[in-house]
Write a structure and sequence with these properties.
With about 220 residues, the chain is α/β, with parallel strands linked by helices. The chain is about 35% helix and about 25% strand. It is built from eight helices and nine strands. The strands form two sheets. It has a six-stranded mixed beta sheet with strand order 5-6-7-3-8-9, with helices on both faces. A three-stranded antiparallel beta sheet has the order 2-1-4, covered by helices on one side. Strand 6, helix 5 and strand 7 form a beta-alpha-beta unit. Helix 2 packs parallel to helix 4. The protein is globular, with a radius of gyration of 19 Å.
C-alpha cells in the first residue's frame, strides 16, 4: 500500500497539491483523472521522488534496499545514438532472454537507433523498460498516448495481468474509457486534492457526475450558431 497524508506540493509560489490524503492498495489498478494542470503528473513524480514535497507524508512499503517503484513518464528520455536493444540491456542489467520475451509482445526493431523510432514505438520501448524492472509498484503517466490500437490492447492486458501478480498500479489518462475498462477504482484530482474516489460499480455514476452539464452546454452553444 501507498499511504499519502496531507501532501502539499508547489512550484515556486504555485501550489499544485494541498493537504491531499489518499490510500492506494496493493493488487489494484488505480486510475487518476483530472483536468490539465490538476496535478496528476506532479503527484506521480512526488511518489517516485522526482519532486520535493512541501509538507505531508508519502508512506511506501519497505522492501529493503531495492527501490520498489518503476515510473513510466509521459515523455521519456533516451540517450542519443543508442538502439532499443542497448536501452533495454541497460535497464534490466543485460538479461537478453527477458528482452526477447517482452519484444515478442510488441515486435519493435530493437537493432535500430531509437532516434528513428516513432512516438508510439518509443512509448512501447519505455513501457518494456518499466516492465523489465519487475517492481511491485508501477506508476504509468499517460501510457496510452501515441500508440496504435493493437498495442493499446496489449498494454491493457499486460496491466491487468500485473495486478493479478500482486502489483500496485497507478495510471493517469486523459481518456476516461481507457481507465474504466481496467481500473478497480478511479480517483478524481480536483482543487488540489483527491475530491472523490469511485469504485468499479460506481463508474457509470462517475461519468454522469463529471460530464453532467457538458451536453447541455454543447447544445446551447450550437443552437446559437
Amino acid at each position: 500500500m501507498i499511504r499519502i497524508k496531507n501532501l502539499s506540493v508547489s512550484y515556486d509560489k504555485n501550489i499544485v497539491l494541498k493537504d491531499l490524503t489518499v490510500d492506494f492498495n496493493q493488487q489494484q489498478i488505480h486510475g487518476i483523472v483530472g483536468l490539465n494542470g490538476a496535478g496528476k503528473t506532479t503527484l506521480l513524480r512526488a511518489i517516485y521522488g522526482l519532486k520535493n514535497i512541501d509538507s505531508g507524508e508519502i508512506l511506501i512499503p519497505d522492501i529493503g534496499s531495492k527501490k520498489p517503484i518503476a515510473f513510466l513518464e509521459t515523455v521519456n528520455y533516451f540517450y542519443p545514438k543508442i538502439t532499443g536493444f542497448e536501452y533495454l540491456k541497460l535497464i534490466n542489467s543485460g538479461n537478453e532472454k527477458d528482452i526477447e520475451l517482452y519484444n515478442s509482445l510488441f515486435d519493435l526493431p530493437l537493432n535500430k537507433l531509437i532516434e528513428h523510432y516513432s512516438t508510439g514505438m518509443r512509448k512501447k520501448l519505455a513501457f518494456m523498460g518499466v516492465l523489465s524492472l519487475k517492481r511491485p509498484i508501477i506508476l504509468l503517466d499517460e501510457p496510452f498516448n501515441g500508440i496504435d490500437l493493437d498495442s493499446y490492447e496489449t498494454m491493457k492486458r499486460i496491466i491487468v495481468e500485473l495486478r493479478e501478480r500482486d502489483k500496485l498500479i497507478l495510471i493517469t489518462s486523459h481518456i476516461l474509457e481507457s481507465l474504466t475498462s481496467i481500473c478497480d477504482c478511479i480517483h478524481v484530482l480536483n482543487n488540489k486534492i483527491i475530491s472523490k474516489t469511485y469504485f468499479r460499480n460506481e463508474f457509470n455514476q462517475m461519468e454522469s457526475d463529471l460530464f453532467k452539464n457538458k451536453d447541455f452546454n454543447i447544445k446551447e452553444v450550437l443552437n446559437k450558431l
